[in-house]
Amino acid sequence: MHRSPSIVHYFLFLALVLQHSIPLFAQQSTASSQVSTFTMDAPQLQGTKKIWLYLPKGYENSTQNYPVIYMHDGQNLFDKATSYIEEWSVDELLDSLSAPVIVVGIAHGGDKRIAELSPYPNAKYGGGQGDAYLDFIVHTLKPKIDGSYRTKSNAKNTCIMGSSLGGLVSFYAALKYPTVFGKVGCFSPAFWFNRDPLNEYMKSIEKFDTKIYFMCGDSEGDDDVIKDLNTVEYWVNTKRCYCLKHNKKVIVKGGKHNEKLWREQFKKAYLWLF
pTM for the complete prediction? Predict the structure, then answer.
């Protein structure tokens, strides 16, 4: 039976909320010894933010500088004890590669998550504080990370990555801050949430050189996920020289809108982007 877009979007909206809620059951921590946390002021968001920090193996005994990945929904990246159902296992995956990269995970805002990760208000579901959230990352968090750790701070070595609304706001970050974020991991992006205003903003962009990894599953619950991704990828291709292999699109057969899909694709995205 065909479901109307409004019904499909309602269930996708529930997924946006439920998949990033508090853990269902108490779990033992699975975070590696390379992961630590701290809390900092987030004046742009009128509150504080908990930050997860992954430092690569050998960081303490090294003098080299490292690229940085900024990721949303920090609760779900490293630790099953803080994730809703499953974690991305970012630390274990990078440890297995001995990957020379720093990862900064930003806690989602709980009941403010939808607002923080959406660039524009949705007429039905609200939101629209993405500019303030990105302002926090660019002007408060990134300077703290660059000032406290040995980073390669230029755009070529700075990536932003997320899934669902995190994929939406990551792509938007690349549009708004092209001199800050030179790489993007855009997983299962919820472009439908801000489709029209995002498309209008894209019309004002003359050039797009950011390296970007697009990914979604073909069983995410809505054909619009793939259609919107294809539309955005086409726009990206019109804004750069076709000789530049700066974007990749992966459609995963059987892939669903969940951490399992994003965990399985994270390693592939990292290896392609870096």
Answer: 0.90
